[in-house]
Design brief:
Two copies of one chain form a homodimer. Chain A has 242 residues and is α/β, with parallel strands linked by helices. In chain A, 30% of the residues lie in helices and 25% in strands. In chain A, strand 7, helix 6 and strand 8 form a beta-alpha-beta unit. The model of chain A has no long low-confidence stretch (mean pLDDT 93). Chains A and B meet through helix 1, helix 3, helix 4, helix 5 and strand 6 of A and helix 1, helix 3, helix 4, helix 5 and strand 6 of B.
Chain lengths: 242, 242
């Protein structure tokens, strides 16, 4: 049976990968993915065949991987974080429909979790994950999700908070959240999670309006209970011995 | 410096742990946690000292771990999944406040990701994670979060969908979601993720009202775009080559 692994490699460092992910990459003859992520695993597996395409050529990249697997090679398609969270997993299923292929998904640590661990424990209670990229989603839908998430007092992880084309998205998001959340809400941002230059910052929601995020930043918004404890962002679950 | 690791071990199988988690457990002299999770790692590290307490004695368990670490032993406190998602990370920060202790969080693959990978790709777009346990959260708050999540067309992962004490919570949750979501919304459930007896089922939101979940089940509710492709639950991101 032709075999295609779809692998989430985590934030980047080899040790943030699961053992299952490492085994899948070892088993694969071909590793496919976006250049930046392929470069993260290439030093671990220099002898593999690699398939890469440019940023945003996701469909092309998935088709190359599916074709290589259907041609008889064991292929691992990699995403950073988890392949099921804004990753390639969905697209692989769409494009592989009806092909003679066994698809195995290998989950990984997405930025909400890896970035959360850098900040402390921002997502200990119910949370929402929202991407601020409107490349593939109408901005009105993103606004609605921000508004509802704040109204329901969710903790929030914001992916893709900014890019050159949409430098003001984070500010606009903060303004929507402020309709329901206090300006003093504890927020955090993590850059280059698990990679060289990792950096975390804490701020209030009001301050975040003017925060300069880039495309390697993940942003966290606390709920009404989130506090700063010893320099960390902590959302209490409210555990007690009941 | 006294050292306390707070480690998410993933769904259960040793290979679903990250290499960083494995290294932390190797480095620790003492491993603390709830009995069921401790039993998952004990075969890998039979020579360690173990500290366990009964279910729900979370504060006591954290205090034991903090005291052991402050007494000079390297301690790893483990949670299943990710320690930052309904796990011990927040409580450790609260109880360790002001103690002479270096805390290192090691993220892991939470059930939204590991269960998602079993079902296909249910969370490829914006999603919310909600626990249906009202032990530590008023049910009204849970209802509000369900209602807002459905109104905003989030994909949803439901943790703790049921227990003996609250057998009807999943039905009540479905009824709230149905105020905004179609009865035909694609849903899925995964039991015993990554462990013996793993089993996944697909159903509609209407059918899920009568689904018998147990405390080892994680439930997934699609958004309005989620489809079934080749027997898998797939939420399209809407990728195209732009």
């Amino acid at each position: 049976m032709n075999k295609l692994y779809v692998v989430g490699i985590g934030p980047g460092a080899p040790e943030d990968m699961t053992l299952r992910a490492k085994n899948a990459l070892e088993d694969a003859q071909v590793i496919a993915g976006y250049g930046v992520y392929v470069d993260l695993v290439r030093p671990m597996f220099p002898e593999k065949e690699y398939l890469t395409t440019a940023m945003r050529r996701e469909s092309e990249r998935c088709r190359l991987a599916i074709d290589a697997a259907c041609g008889g090679k064991t292929v691992a398609m990699i995403s950073s974080g988890d392949a099921g969270v804004y990753g390639m997993a969905g697209l692989i299923y769409e494009l592989a429909q009806g092909r003679d292929l066994e698809i195995e998904l290998v989950p990984g640590v997405t930025a909400a979790l890896s970035g959360g661990a850098v900040l402390g424990a921002p997502l200990t209670h119910d949370f929402a994950v929202i991407s601020l990229s409107d490349l593939l989603t109408p901005w009105e839908k993103i606004e609605k999700r921000l508004e509802m998430a704040a109204a329901a007092d969710f903790c929030i992880a914001l992916y893709n908070p900014s890019s050159i084309r949409r430098a003001d998205h984070l500010r606009r998001a903060c303004e929507i959240l402020l309709r329901h959340a206090s300006p003093e809400t504890v927020c955090g941002a993590v850059r280059n999670i698990g990679r060289e230059g990792e950096r975390m910052e804490l701020m209030t929601l009001e301050e975040m309006k003017n925060y300069s995020a880039d495309m390697f930043t993940t942003v966290f918004v606390g709920n009404s209970q989130t506090r700063v404890i010893d320099g960390r962002m902590v959302t209490p679950r409210g555990y007690r011995d009941v």
